[in-house]
Amino acid sequence: MTLRIPALITAILERDLRLALRHGADTLGAVLFFILAGALFPLALGPSPELLRRMAPGIVWVCALLAALLPLDRLFGSELEDGSLDQLLMTGLPPSLIALAKMIAHWLTTGLPLLLAAGPLAIMLGMPTTSMVVLLTGLLLGTLILSLIGGMAASVVLGARRGGVLLPLLVLPLTTPALIFGAAALDAAQTGLSWGPDLELLGAFLAAALPLCPLAAGAGLRAAVE
Amino acid sequence: MPGPHFLPLAWRISVIPAFTPPGHPLLEVENISVFRGERLVLDRVGFTLEAGDALLLTGPNGAGKSTLLRVLAGLHKPEGGHVLWSGVDALADRSQHAGRVAYLGHQDALKLGLTLRENLTLAARASGGNPDLCMESLNISGLADLPARMLSAGQKRRAALARVLLAQAPLWLLDEPSLGLDINTMGLLGTLFAAHRQAGGIVIATTHVPLPLPDARTHALPGLNESDIPQPLEDFPEDDLL
Asked: Where is the signal peptide (chain A) (predicted)?
């Protein structure tokens, strides 16, 4: 069985990526939301380049956070509805690893595209290209954290009535540290301060979430099929 | 009707565990009790099955047939009772128990956007079985590359049954396996059941119609007593429940 675990995780990933490609519109939805929401800020705040440059880190981070929430609802919801969750559990893969595989799939289909779209959005808002490395490194860690915490919350609210409403209420408070450190690193980079410590704290957050979130999510999946 | 490919199939489902401690039946179910909310759905259900046995679960709607199957599959934790496999507590390690079970729920659990073959990949990866052989046994080889959304209800059921074969597990738990199947497929199902039992497997199925399972035992689950049915509250505060 131990030998089969990596093969099963790859099989779940393959399946989810294939589904994401077949339903391309759903997959692109989160990225388009990210770009559109980011593009609304100049319209609302006025075109002052100084103001936008100052606010760009916060805008990019908040929009990424909200965009990553969009597909979470369906992450386990679709599996529960059509009975696939039962079959996933019947593969003999421990539930926490099933959850981890789904979280990785969420990152590949949502986090990675957001990361790719973040660069153009930041340039559009006038962020200096010198802080681009800090933005992308921070968002790399941040989107991974979002997928882990989001996956955990999605499995916890699975099967609850109005789970879709509960989900952001659970995820957003838990991800505030990532938002604070991520945006602070960018701020520091723009003002010429040292941004290392902020990214290190972000990394520490990820290191804590990586083992804990799948464990909690696994328990949530077991509870959801009962 | 079955072709010559059934002999090798019967061999493939060679399932008797390598070591059965003497004096233990293969599957023992003792005093399973399950609550759903305030209501006792299963009240001390118990039976014993030997290798090659078949059991039909009958009873009115809501009697807990599907719940019992989910308990046996390790998907639902019972409030009381034990499931013993060769004398060992099966539910202690539910991930390990999953390897002994092929579970067919009342849903077919197919992803509509994937082809039939892609739908079976995960189960094949889990058991090491051959999906083509299993699709052939249920006469759906021709549909292998069609997306599941284009299949009829009966064809989807056959695909779900192919996944049961694919699991190569000794214990088949089937929730209304005949749902939507035509007469020919029912005959096919009979042959598959026979091959599985011949190889020492166990079939437990819930059903409302006769299944091709000769000399299967029947376990009737009592339905609800009228007095047990919870009466709807007046002014039920549904909106306050989250």
From this structure: none
Type of residue found at B72: L
pTM of the model: 0.88
> In Å, how far are A221, B136, B231 from B37, measured between CA atoms?
19, 43, 14
Rg (CA), chain A: 18
Q: Does B172 touch chain A (CB under 8 A)?
A: no
Q: Report yes or no: B229 at the A interface, CB cutoff 8 Å.
A: no
Say if the Cβ atoms of B111 and A8 lie within 8 Å.
no
DSSP letters of chain B? Answer: ---TTHHHHHHHT----S---TT--SEEEEEEEEEETTEEEEEEEEEEE-TT-EEEEE-STTSSHHHHHHHHHTSS--SEEEEEETTEEGGGSHHHHHTTEEEE-SS----TTSBHHHHHHHHHHHH---HHHHHHHTT-GGGTTSBGGGS-HHHHHHHHHHHHHHTT-SEEEEESTTTT--HHHHHHHHHHHHHHHHTT-EEEEE-SS--S-TT-EEEEPP---GGGSPPPPTT--GGG--
* A2 reaches B (C-beta below 8 A): no
User: How confident is the model at residue A102, as a pLDDT?
Assistant: 96
Q: What residue segments make up the domains of chain B, in order of their start? A: 25-220
Reported as a single tens digit per residue, the pLDDT across A179-214 is 999 989 988 888 888 889 999 999 999 999 999 999
Q: How many residues does chain A have?
A: 226
